[in-house]
Structure formats: structure tokens, C-alpha cells
Amino acid sequence: MVARFPVSLRWSGGLLRASSSRRRGVSAMAGGGEEAHLGGFLEYMDMLRNYERSGVPRGAGTDSDDGFDLGRMRRLLRRLGDPHTHYPSVHIAGTKGKGSTAAFLSNIMREQGYNVGCYSSPHLLTIRERISVGQHGGPVSAASLRDLFDLAKEAIDESIESENGSLTHFEVFTALSFLLFSRENVDVAIVEAGLGGARDATNVIRNSELAAAVITTVGKEHLAALGGSLQSIAVAKSGIIKEGRPVVIGGPFSTDIEQIIRDRAFLTQSPVISACDTAIRSITRCIGRDYAKPYQSCDIVMKISGDMPLSVELHDVKLQLLGDHQRQNAVTASCTALCLRELVKDGMYPMHLSELV
Prior knowledge:
- The chain is of the alpha/beta class.
- It has a single domain, classed as UDP-N-acetylmuramoyl-L-alanine:D-glutamate ligase, CATH 3.40.1190.
- Helices cover 35% and strands 18% of the residues.
- The protein is built from 10 helices and 11 strands.
- The protein has a 7-stranded mixed β-sheet, sandwiched between helices. A 4-stranded mixed β-sheet has the order 1-11-10-9.
- Strand 7 (247-249), helix 9 (255-267) and strand 8 (272-274) form a beta-alpha-beta unit.
């Protein structure tokens, strides 16, 4: 890989975009036609169990006997050559804000010249919106997805048979995204968790591949599936934290919820960076329009000490998503980008990222 991580971060013309993959997905669909090139892929996927449609069983996202079986996901990936081990990943979980944070971070990294893979869910109009790769940030092309599926279909068929048909739509599509990122030789993958954390199909990323974990918020979505309380949801989402790898927490969180996350980080000896640190100041200066698109112009200034000192001053950053919560997502993404920069400078990245110093 090429050493391209600069000491300073820059945003394209001061404009921090978080809408590229999903909004470009809408415009791509408005142009029409590409889905016809997917061949039998969509029909194949529709035959798989889809909990996004049927609803997630009670306790399925918890690290318990009721939780989803991550073993079948690992076995599927093994048949595909363990593609998720070929590049570093940032793993993002949270009740709200993880999609925006993933998009902000992906675009920051692209502006630095990185080949970025981003995986998110759900989609608006086309399943292709869930995967973006490369510099453009738009949905994966139908041709690329079809070719990828053709390449992997035999292994997927074998896995479905060996798992007695229990592989799900989300597991198969997640595996395909990991495979695409490997084949495209991404420098880093930004991976958004689906249901939660501990038993999410994305949580096969080990500490040796994890660059950083990010937990944006903890709320009551998927309450039954994640244990029935805010505390159990926090425990499930903190399951993405891995031994010795930094965790960025977004928030704001209540004291008890933040403590659950910090306790997990303490047990795994993981540095914690809080996007709600008192040393961070972020304000919205004005709302404007850029080529008829609304934006909020923000200042983000941070000088964090503690587990991992981070410092930056960003003025007149234009966010194409509005609201205080989106500004907080941008702060979380900025903290994560700075965290990655510090890890590179200190030579602390796992695997391939150590080559970027």
C-alpha cells in the first residue's frame, strides 16, 4: 500500500459531505436501468431469510444462547478466503448516527486520497447503496456486484447447504462486501454494524484487523432483540470493542450507559476517545445553500488529553446534513479520523496500516 496519510486533515473546500453514497444512490436510480444488469442476484438474495423484513427475534443481538450464531458467518468467510482479514477496518455501531458518521469518515478518508470501502445498511432504493468503494463514494455498480456474486456463488451455495439453509440475507451480503473490499485492495474499510454489536454479522472483525471501534449513540431501537433495556443495548453495542484497539464514543450518553462502554474498554485495555469531551467545542455559525443544496457552516475545535491526545481546529466546515445531531456525528467522525492519524504516526496500526507510516 502507498503511504498517503498526511499529518494534517483537510476537507474538500471546507465541505464535509455525508450524503454521497445514499443520495447518489437515489440519483442513480432516478437515472434507472442498472438493476437490470444484476441478473439473478436479487432473486437469489430474496430466497434467503431476511430479518429486516420479518423482524429480529427476541435476544438475537445479545451475546447469549439466544444470540445469532457468528460461527456460520466465520465459516462462510473462510470459504471465501477470509477477505475481511486483508485490510484494516473501522467498525461503527450505534442506535442512531452510525450511517452519517460512516459517510462523514469515508469522505474524509477519500479526500486524503485513500481507496475506501464503506458498508452500510439499510438502503433506500437499491441494495447497491449499501456498498461503496474507491474515490467516487457512490453505490457499487451493478456489473461489479453481479461479477462478484458469480465469483462467490459456488462457495455461498456450499455454505448454505452445510448450514442447513440458515444463512441470512444480511450475512451473505456482508460477506460479499468484505470480498469486494479485498478484491479492490482498499486501504481501509468503514463498516457499519446492522442490528447491534456483539452478535451482528459484521462483528467477525478481530483486533488484528480493527483500526478503531466507534459507538455513536445508545437508544431503544431493537429493544427486545438486544436484551430489553438500555443497559443491555449498551452491552451489546460495546461488543465491537476489541483488545487494545481504540474506541471513539459519540453520545451524549447518560452516565450509566457511558460507564458500561468504558468498563468494556477498561477490560479490553482499549483507549477511549469521547466526542463529548469538554475539550471539544463545536458550533453552527449559519445555515446556507451551495448550488441549491442546504448546509450548516460549523466550527469544530478540539484539544483532547487523556488516553490519546488529539488536537485540531476546523473553521467554516460545511455539513450537507443539518441539525445539532449531525454536527455531533461530524465531531465523532473527526475524532475517529484524528485517532487513525495518531495511530499511523505512532506506528501502532495492525497489519497493513503499519505500512502507511
